[in-house]
Amino acid sequence: MTIRVLLWGFGAIGRQLADQLRPERESGAMHLTAVVRDVEAHRERGDHGVDLRPGVTNVDWQAALDDVDLVVECAGVSPARQRGPDVIGSGRVLVLASVGALADPDTARALLSGPGRLWVTHGAIGGFDVLASAAEAGGLDTVRIRTRKLASSLIRPWMDTEQTQQLRRLAPGEDPVTVFSGHPAEAIELFPGNVNVAVALAWATRGGFPGDDVEQLAASLQRVEVELLADPDAELSTHEMSASGPAGRLMFSFESAPSPENPKTSGLTALSVAHTLRIALDQRRSVTETNS
Ligand SMILES: NC(=O)C1=CN([C@@H]2O[C@H](COP(=O)(O)OP(=O)(O)OC[C@H]3O[C@@H](n4cnc5c(N)ncnc54)[C@H](O)[C@@H]3O)[C@@H](O)[C@H]2O)C=CC1
Ligand SMILES: O=C([O-])CC(=O)C(=O)O
């Protein structure tokens, strides 16, 4: 049986993901479709064996969903918030790369309410097994993440001229500039393409707080502290995480090789999406076999 997967977003992550899924594509176990703005422009860059359909803004979303078994989101936080609830509402599986969408409690509630199933990817960072174990036992008091990226990937339209110029002029060897310090929910509004990892960290360490998943996540988002630095020497995006409490002191550091498709995105993210997708498919297969 061929599993039909919709790639929702066919940029750096979507393209690298399609490459990762070559064995499944070539064996006929999986068929990938992507809805894109400009089919010809994408064909020129290589379609990576993906069936390209025109659309994005004017796509008949319901018809697109009718044609697939599973959706992989790698389009961005805003599209994930807009359309993710429809995917879950249709009973389909959604694999989420833009984990930052969960920082909005209404979106989180819709994505976690079913009948479809949400899979949250670990993205460009990890170590979540041990962090989740410690958090569930009430073993963490502080959870921190410091992300360093090149200034060019952190310039945002809302920045004033002075801040934009400061980031543009930042030269190798100079001190890093802190562009954000605070909690993940605010960070993801300001830098939706850069701090999904911080929301993912809050998701991973929500255990131990009272309430359901959404209430736990809201409390966890208040505990996680994020620092985002424009670092002229951060040729590789780096993420340093630390957590401490009765469980001990845990420290992790990630320097991810850049995506082969876009140096601003960590290559690990597409690998995380591929891995999560394969787990989701295994689970779907075993449920189908049990029911048949
Ligand atoms: N969890 C993590 O660690 C990470 C998560 N991300 C998330 O993944 C997203 C995608 O990352 P990249 O592939 O590097 O970005 P990208 O900009 O290379 O690709 C995004 C693609 O989605 C398309 N797109 C935008 N809105 C769309 C819509 N409504 N429907 C369909 N397609 C749409 C764009 O045209 C573009 O081709 C980021 O915006 C971020 O939210 C990115 C890096 C790490
Ligand atoms: O790719 C990375 O290093 C992380 C990133 O952009 C995000 O978490 O949004």
TrEMBL record:
Key words, A-Z: NAD, NADP, Oxidoreductase, Pyridine nucleotide biosynthesis
Ranges of residues in domain Aspartate dehydrogenase: 175-273
Reaction(s) the record says it catalyses: L-aspartate + NADP(+) + H2O = oxaloacetate + NH4(+) + NADPH + H(+); L-aspartate + NAD(+) + H2O = oxaloacetate + NH4(+) + NADH + H(+)
Pathway linked to the protein: Cofactor biosynthesis; NAD(+) biosynthesis; iminoaspartate from L-aspartate (dehydrogenase route): step 1/1
Listed InterPro entries: Asp/hSer_DH_NAD-bd, Asp_DH, Asp_DH_prok, L-Asp_DH, NAD(P)-bd_dom_sf
Documented EC number(s): 1.4.1.21
Stored HAMAP family: NadX
Protein name: L-aspartate dehydrogenase
Residue sites binding NAD(+) per the record: 124, 196
Biological function: Specifically catalyzes the NAD or NADP-dependent dehydrogenation of L-aspartate to iminoaspartate.
Family: Belongs to the L-aspartate dehydrogenase family.
Other observations noted: The iminoaspartate product is unstable in aqueous solution and can decompose to oxaloacetate and ammonia.
Gene that produces this protein: nadX
Domain spans labelled Aspartate/homoserine dehydrogenase NAD-binding: 9-112
Active site per the UniProt annotation: 239
